[in-house]
Input
Amino acid sequence: MSTTAVTPLTTADAEALVTAAVKDAQAAGLTVSVTVLDAGGHLLAFRRDDRAVLISGETSTRKAYTALQLDAPTADLVDAVQPGGLFHTLPTALDRPLLFIAGGVPVRRDGRLIGSIGIGGGSPEQDHGIATTAVRTLA
Output
């Protein structure tokens, strides 16, 4: 068992993720909300473009929470909640703010889960792309 300490997600990391996501969204002509959570699910950073649809703030947070709790990109979980899917009853079985729409991505350091990012405001595919690009810039 490895006891090597992994540096947690810092406020500076969270701001870097938000900056990268906003830059990518702007380049695509999108107005989005960005949520960054630490490994405990606590809010580290949030930004909603003042022109983004209001619900994007909630969807970005729920996507980040879902990616963190299930340690998987929400894009990979969409089929799992469909009828007959592995997690079909999960969205209604738990009293948690889960959202199975692409746009949430776990953040790892040295292979360990240290947080997550969620994007809301574009199409699910656009949100996923922005989140993935932001996480890559942190590496």
The longest strand covers residues 112-120. The beta strands are 33-38, 43-48, 104-109, 112-120. The mean pLDDT is 92. Residues 11-27 form the longest helix (17 residues).
